[in-house]
Every structure is written in C-alpha cells, then in structure tokens.
Amino acid sequence: MKFFVIVLGCVAFAWLIHSFFFKKKKLPTVKRCSVCGVESKYGYSENTKEKIKSIKSICTKCLVSHLRNDYTTFSGRAVVIQPAPGPPCYVFHSNKEWGESFKESKMDDDATAYLLRMDTLCRDCGQKANFLWVESKGLTAHNFGSVLKKGFCETLLPRNPKPVSLCGNCCVNHIAEELKEKEIAYFEVSGPKGVDDGFVIPMAY
C-alpha cells in the first residue's frame, strides 16, 4: 500500500513538472514598453537604421508621444507617406542623405519637387504646414522597393487622392489614426530630425 502511494505521488509530481514546462514553453513572449511597461507593438529609434539594441520597445501611446515631439520640433519639411501594413519599418530619411546613397532613386527628387509647391497652411487646422501627406494605397511589402526606386509620383499618386499639407501635430494625428485603424505594427519607427528636408515611408532595409 505504501509503495502504491509512493508511486502515485511520483506520477503526480512528474505530471506537475511536465505541465509546468509545457505551459511555460507555450506562453507567448510579450514585449514591454521601455517607457511605461505595458505591452509593446513597436520599436522606436532616435535615428534611422539604429543598431538593434538601440531600438526601444514602445507602446502605441508612448510612440505617439515621441512622434509628436519629433514632428513638432522638426525644422525642415517632409513628405509623409501614409502608414501601410507589410513593410517592417516606418522611418525618416533626409533627401540629402538618401540622394548621396541611392543615386538611381527618384524619391528624393520627388520629395524636393513636391515640397517646393506644397501649401504653406495646414489643411486640418490652418497653422503653418511643413509636412505633405501622401496616401499609400497600392504600397505593399512586395513593391515598396519599386516605390523607392521610381518615386511616389509615378507609383502612388496615380491611384491616391491629391497630397495635403499638414502641420506636425495634425500629421501625427493622421499617423496615429492609421496605426490604430489598420492595427499596424512596426519593428522600427523613427521621426524626422534636424533641418534637412526629407520623407517618411514604410520600407525595409
């Protein structure tokens, strides 16, 4: 009888150990926001193409807060392509840096040309505008390279509404709305910095 109880106890103990490790293995790894500790869906970097260890895990609320600071303190102008699901990054590039690195790309030429003739007032609130919002219908994880090479004038404008001028605050409102509505998650997001004109686009490296 005593032997039976011991065997039963060993079986029960083995089952508990198995259950513990099985459940532990099945539990999903949840990334936490480096700012507030809630679940994170994004990675935020101070500058584009940061080392992976420099990309901070961040939640939607804290991401929007960081982007609002980036966009409202940016001294230059930028074309902002609407967030789109598929590409893993949503980042800013200056026209100067991009043109020097990718001489065959038309993105910097398109951005320069359209920023020169954008409206100076925000379509949404009437304040000074320094961002040109371009909708991204047709941009996917498979063709963003073509958009980068041929430029947004040839690839996106024919199938999307006319671009609109926005101030920093209103531009971030549009970005936040798109992220929420389409439930988009990005491995890396960076906002515009400095004084050089440029563009923000969904892409991969």
What does the model show?
Helix 2 runs antiparallel to helix 7 (168-182). The model is unreliable at 1-27 (pLDDT under 50). It is globular, with a radius of gyration of 23 Å. The protein is an alpha/beta fold. The chain contains 7 helices and 8 strands.
Topology, please?
Blueprint: H1 2-26, E1 42-44, E2 56-58, H2 60-73, E3 78-81, E4 89-94, H3 95-101, H4 107-116, E5 131-134, H5 144-150, H6 152-155, E6 164-166, H7 168-182, E7 188-189, E8 198-203
Parallel strand pairs: 3-5, 3-8, 4-7
Antiparallel strand pairs: 1-2, 4-8, 5-6
Summarize the structure.
By secondary structure, this protein is of the alpha/beta class. The protein has helices spanning 2-26, 60-73, 95-101, 107-116, 144-150, 152-155, 168-182, and strands spanning 42-44, 56-58, 78-81, 89-94, 131-134, 164-166, 188-189, 198-203.
Classify the oligomer: single chain
Task: Report the portion of residues in β strands.
Answer: 15-25%
Count of spatially separate domains: 1
| Average pLDDT taken over every residue | 88
| Helix proportion range | 40-55%
Radius of gyration equals 23 Å
Please outline the major beta sheet. 6 strands, mixed
**Counted beta strands:** 8
Q: How would you spell out the order of helices and strands?
A: HEEHEEHHEHHEHEE
Shape: globular
Q: State the helix count.
A: 7
CA distance, first residue to last residue: 68 Å
Strand order of the largest sheet: 6-5-3-8-4-7
Q: Give the helix/strand class.
A: alpha/beta
> Spans with pLDDT under 50 lasting ≥5 residues?
1-27
